[in-house]
Write a structure and sequence with these properties.
Length: 329
Amino acid sequence: MASKGIRGLNEAMRSLSLSSQTCREAASLRIPSSNFTRSMATEAPLPNITTSVNASAAGAPFSPVRTVPVTIFDFPSFEPTRLESWSAQHLHLPLRRDLLHLAVVYEGDKTRQGTASSKTRWEVAGSHRKVRPQKGTGRARVGSRQSPILRGGGKAFGPKPRDFSTRLNRKVYDIAWRTALSYRYRRGELLVCRDGLELPLPDEFAALVAGDESTNPLPAELQRSFKGKWARQVLDANGWGRQNGRSTVITTTRRDDLFEALDEVPRSGRALDLEDVDVKDLLETGRIIIEREALAEMLDRHQSDLVTRVFVNNVPVMKGPDGAKVLVE
């Protein structure tokens, strides 16, 4: 048995030496050099993809829009009279629905009166003695006449005067104002008219109002009715009437003829003073017809996030975006 084991060990050592010699001979062989290249299955040449509309300006740095053109029209003929350049930070902001929602809710909360008030059982007049004994009558238990469960009694958990107004950062509110104007501008629904916006009346109407020695002047009711019909005709002729969405006319001060005429036709349009305009008013109707001076003052009031204070000799100097510049007149 021992001899067989030694014999098997010798055979194993002999085969191991032969395999090592074969590996040394294979390592000594060299593969002849050749121009052999291997391509991956996913390898493909890159196509000529155009990354810019203007190939010559592909390497140029990005330059944002700084100004936007604004056409100044004549009212009510709607004839262009001047072309101006306004800052893009005023009339070309991106749409932010979240800021508009915050501004509208903020304005709505501030307009709530909060005067609702009710009396509790201790504020209702009358004696507070118990109506009937607790036991012995066979009826339900009841306290005083001021109990909330009785007719004429106090109100449990009723409303009391309170302040519903909420707080909103001034810069956020100003951005919402300019966002609403920018939204109207991009949709072509912001019509800027010359200063002194007023509704001109026909000469025949002026003669009828003045009257003469033989005729009496028109009553005030007929005058208002005629102004309303004339305003509706003007709005419909320009495509600003009820069929195309109501129009909001904004002026710096009250214009008697314009305001009286639009008050007679509320379904066609409305007129607002600059002091009465809110963000919600800029979004409700189909378009905004605004006086140039009113638009400039509106933007000047709501640009707190754009204005920086520079102190010169301890005196603050306000610096903001450039104003409007006339391009064509």
